[in-house]
Structure prediction request, 330 residues.
Amino acid sequence: MIIPWIYTPVRGILAIWQQLTKTLEKKNGSLVSEILRSKIPEMANCSVLMREHSRVEETIQAMQQAGAGSLQVISDFDMTLTRFAHNGKRVPSTHNILNNRLLVNEDCTKKIKKLLNTYYPIEIDARRSVEEKVPLMVEWWIKVHELLIQQRIRKDLLSQAVKESSTMLRDGYKVFFDRLVEQRVPMLILSAGVGDVLEEVIRQNHVFHPNIHIISNYMDFDQTGVLQAFKGELIHIFNKGEGALSHAAGLRELQGRPNVLLLGDSLGDLAMAGGVSEPQNVLTVGFLNDQVDERKESYINSFDIVLVKDETMDVPNGILRYITSSGNNK
Prediction:
């Protein structure tokens, strides 16, 4: 039995401790409200960080009230829809899938790997500005594309190269893709990778549904099926909000859908919703895959929701399930 005159101070101390804990959690971007937790249990995952949980809650609620008919999904591909790593090994990007003996020789593989080791640290360097990075990213993409063109890659071997690769979509991907097509929600995939390879990855995972639209770097093959160039404007990690999105404006399926669920793994991906006409609610989800300590603050300050070293689609699936549930949309 607790003596009453002791109980009151103890209760006061517990209240102070609980408030202090909440304050620290909020400061670290990890506080999840009970309302969000009850509606979307996945939001309570330890991988989830948020700076303004109240804004996230309000945005999700507004999107839910508007229903699936007002929603579109805009997503990056490499390291967003695909896993970053599996069993401690990096999962190849669409460019790296082409580093296959079927398609390129050993010298080309070494050169592409050297370029990756040179430019990728620049891409994720939190100390460098976007203005510094852009010309270097363009330089990287052009050099890789030139190397691939020199290899005279055969179109008929792309499918086999994807099969032999260790690429993987994130756990729960099928639930995500299938839910979107069932609810007639269009998805725009905007990728700085290789569109031909990207399509093959989705196709081989049996989720290439009619609601999917892709803007990416596509190969231009000659009449014999040999790579001779890359088509159109170069899309790299930091120009997704510019000319590339002019293509998205012409997609009728995206018109009249002012609510956007945006998925990316780079700060450059935040510009992907730039082509949306008169957006009302945009919820951004960022996958923080690498150099967490160095980049966590900038991601929390930029994305609405940050998923730290989370190789699943659990949180996007939970959000999508709630927004599109027929029982919620009235």
About this structure: The first strand starts at residue 48 and ends at 50. Residues 20-30 have pLDDT under 50 and may be disordered. The longest helix spans residues 4-27.
